Structures are given as C-alpha cells and as structure tokens.
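Re-running Iron complex transport system ATP-binding protein to confirm reproducibility after the cluster update. Everything else is unchanged from the original entry.
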Amino acid sequence: MILSCLKLCASYGTKQVLKNASLEVRPGDFICVCGANGSGKSTFLKLLSGLERGKSKKSPSFLQIDSAEKMPSLTEDDGSRTVFLLDLPRREIARRIAFLPQSEFPAWDTTVFDMILTGRFAPSGTSYTAEDYSRVKEAARFLEITPLLERSVFTLSGGEFQKCRIARAIAQQGEFLILDEPCAGLDINAESALLKKMRILSDGGKTGVVVSIHNINAAVRFAKKIALLSDGGIVCGSAEEVIVPKNITRAFGDGISVFTHPLWNCPQIG
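Result of re-run:
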C-alpha cells in the first residue's frame, strides 16, 4: 500500500502556504518533513492524513491499494485500486493511518495505560481484547515508558505525556504513522532516542513513518528521506540530495551554511 498526495494547495487566510506539494509514502519509509516556521508543515500533514480537504474540491490524498487487498467498509467497489481518503469512513482511515497532532492536553483523569488503550478503538471498538492490552504494553515497552502505565496522566511531565501520546499512536498499528512535531517538549537526548525508535519501527518494513521536525541536524541522522518545504512546494530525497545550499537558502534565507559532519558523515547546517 502507498499513501500519496499530489499537488496539494492550502492557505492561511490570504497567504498560500502550499502550492502543488506532492509526496509518496511507502511502508518502510521514514521521512522527516522540515521547513521554516509557518511553511505549512502541520497543514501538510493534516492533508496527507486525510484530516483536511484543503483548496481542492476532492480529497487531496489517496491510497494505492494492492490488487489482492479488500476494502470491506466501502459500499461500492468499481475495481479501482486508488482510494481517496475522504471517501473512506473515519474509522477506516484510522485503521490505516495513525496521526499525532502537534499539541494536546489530557481531557480527563485516567491512567497512562487506559490513555494508550484508546488508540485501539479503530481496530477493535470498545470491546477490547487481550490482544489490545498486549499492544498497549508492547508500545510502552518500545518507548520505554512501562513504569508510567499506572500513573495518572495528570501527574506526567510534558515530555512524559508526549511519549505516552506517541505510544498511543504506535498501538493503533496503522500502516502509516504520521507525527506532527513529536519531539516538542523532549530534551536533546530524548529527541535522538525517539528518532532512533522511529527508524527502527520503519525498518520493520510494515510501517511508513512521517515526522515533522524543526531540528534538521537531528533529522538527517536518522531519517531515510528528508522532505523540505519551501515556497509552498516540497523537495524530497536523501539528506545528501536535499540538504544542499540552494535548497536551504530557499527554505530559510541567507546566512546558513551546509557542511558534512566529521563523525556522522552526513549533511548538517549551521
């Protein structure tokens, strides 16, 4: 299965932030979306995940389905292997795409375990099974937050709560994991550890991971591809292809240099 968007367009009031932005995400991908403040990273991820329609009259994002795969929730099957996200029921989208919004606050007092368990609603509904409980524990172990499971969400630090939100998205087990600034609230070590975890998750080959992030230098160390937003469009490719002076100047302006890190042997900016 492939998640694609073609020529996305979106505006903030009279300001157009996305102009013909396109991206393709496959299982096994780990793509970091970078760009200046206000460049449209969050808007792009919402459009990609099917949460917003943008300026198009049709859904801007679609799934390319394998020929053998069924879409049982569709009432009609015209034989097309391209399915637009906004033509799907919300729960069907959630089965396939786990989306983490940029910010969120606890809505009620509950345990971390039960908070993560809500990520299992799309695949299971309210009748949770032993497998659902197992997925919660598995996601917590993966992010190393098992000691937090019985804690109240109201007692967590900002960084702890962020990790719990990410664990909930992982427990959802969609084919695509789209995270809007998951490193917000994390210190530099926690940021590197999280990006490394996302790389490991994508290396399993079953999940395509898309992350928006401000720290380009951290992104290029772990991501398989960089998607750089500038002037409403996207340049996507390997770090070596994308992090070059011309693209960086276009995205961030003058005064930023590009160099190769002597230890990691990857592009860095400064």
